[in-house]
Amino acid sequence: MQDKWSNQITENSPYCIAHVRIITKKDNEPVDYTYVNVNKAYSTFIQLSHDQIVGKRALELSKRITSGGFDWLSFLARVALYKEFDETTQKVSDDGKYIHIVAYRVGEKEVAFSFIDVTKEVSQLQLHEQLFNLTPTPVIVLSPEGIILRVNQEWQTLFDYQPQEMAHRNMYDFIHPDDQRNVKTCMRRIEKEGNTCSVATRIRSNDGSYKEIFWRAHHTHTYILAAGVDLSFIKKNERALQRQLDLQNMFMETTVSGFSQMMLDEPIDPLTITDSHLDIDEYLKSERIVSVNDAFANQYHTTKEILLGKTGYELYKDDLNSGRSNFIESVRLGKLSGEFHMKLVDGTTSWFYADITTLKDSKGRIVGHMILQIDINARKKVEFELNRSETQFRLLSEYASDMIWSYNFHKGNFSYVSPAIINILGWTPDDVIQGDYTRYLYEEDLIKVKKQILLWAIEYRKSKCVNKKWILQLRHYTKKGTLVWIESAINFKEYPDSLIEVIGVSRDISDKKKAEADLVYSSYHDQLTKVFNRRYVNEQVELLIHQKAFPLSIITCDVNGLKLTNDVFGHSVGDALLRNTGSLLQSFAGKLDLVARDGGDEFLMLLPYTSREQAQKIMTKIKKESETIYVGKTYLSLSLGLSVMENEDDSYID
């Protein structure tokens, strides 16, 4: 009757129960197990009937009973062959299901085991574990004897211990010796009275230092739960705050910046502030200076004692509109920065750059303002002088006849060109600044100017010749396409970032260049015949000798009867004879040859690399051609001579 009753209990138990026999090799190594019996709950668990399970080997049913990675064979074989009893909690499915398994040896190589779903219980334990570790408060669990059972993550982090380094150690191993008596007294009290006890103590960290903890312990009959607060952090913050206050006070008294703090008589809700002048004036009248340093007082040409207690209304009494505007803007923005022009206590005015910070309490109400400011009067004077200089320069550059310009050497473009360029070249400043300036320069001069300016820039950087000017003469194209000569006086300016800018003043020197060319032409040419003169011939003979242009033939030519012609027919006819002679000789001159008037009625022809025979042929042609030239009332008559220099030792006729 009792066995039947036991069988019914087993069969209808909510636990999954099974009886198996372990199959081993000859060396007793388990390879599988066979089902001897199972109850209904087990059949339902693996979704097979009783008959489909009993007598079957586990490997045949592996797809039904293998889940979650749990090794059933090893666990059951260990009980059947070695342990007689074992239990474990295992995850048996990917969706997070847990079971608790209990196994007993019931015969040779036979095991009876049962398990039940404990997913809910495991989830609760996991939740408790998470809460235990997530709490920002260091928590420790002790046995009544003071043995450490568990610590949470915050405790581990605070003292830099791993769980295994504290587990099963006596709590007093970590408490400062001077504090152990107070802790023991606290532990005895909660053990007797069963309530909580609070105590401050120093606990040793892993690095050997001590942290001061204020903790509260509670006795639960089976263990002691204690939670603490890190007082060392609080005290460290208190010390840091005090240092900050000391530094702030030191800063206030030593900084060259003016510092003041103003507080309202009553806090103001910012939402209630309107633009009404009456309301704002009341706010200004109720906000007073409560703290000020010497620098602030000096900036206002007064003393701290006079400033303390003054209201915003008094500070802004001569310019209330500015005071009202500053108050509204500082409230709206939270912080107002800018330049302010203030009237001082002694009646003078001064410029300040100030940061005005709105102070609020924990409820967001406005309680005052903090002001940090510097005197910028000197800077304002410099700015005024700069503005005046810039205005003068702008007027000078815009109305000067010379073209003023600046060129960024590194970027390769003009940053400024004065309007004078319109009159000089026909281009506008924007044409040059925004366009390709190289198309305005004569091609032959472009390469030369780039190289020359680079060399001058290097010289400037080495010597910093700020008072020196370098002169450039270049040909530029006008907007009409004509070429003009431009002379530029330039210098350089180097900026802190090592960039160099070229500064220049340019003017049109085309007339000057033409006059120079005319002067050069006149110095080497005969004004009447337009052929070269004796000076030029002498220079060229030396050059030809130096170049060894041998044989160098020299034809001399005299105009016969020039004086008589002048006397009989007049100088106009004589001059015509001379001009025709020059033209005749030029017509027989080659590219390397030159013709010159030697003065009076004499002419010369220099024929480099020309032999005597070649020169004689030329002379014959000249003589023949001259006989056909009729000027006025007479024919041209010439007397020709020839000398040849075969080398530099031969003499040149004078």
Shape, per Cα inertia axes = elongated
Q: Count of DSSP E strands?
A: 27
Strand order of the largest sheet: 2-1-5-4-3
Structural class: alpha+beta
Low-confidence parts lasting 5 or more residues at pLDDT below 50? Answer: none
Counting structural domains, the number is 5
| Count of helical regions | 24
CATH topology-level fold name of the largest domain: Alpha-Beta Plaits
| CATH arch. level architecture of the largest domain | 2-Layer Sandwich
Beginning-to-end CA distance, first to last residue: 167 Å
Classified in CATH, the superfamily of the largest domain is Reverse transcriptase/Diguanylate cyclase domain
Portion in helices: 40-55%
Largest sheet: 5 strands, antiparallel
Radius of gyration: 57 Å
Q: Which strand-content bin applies to the residues?
A: 25-35%
CATH class of the largest domain: Alpha Beta
Mean pLDDT: 85
3D structure, described in words:
It contains 24 helices and 27 strands. Helix content is 40%, strand content 30%. The mean pLDDT is 85.
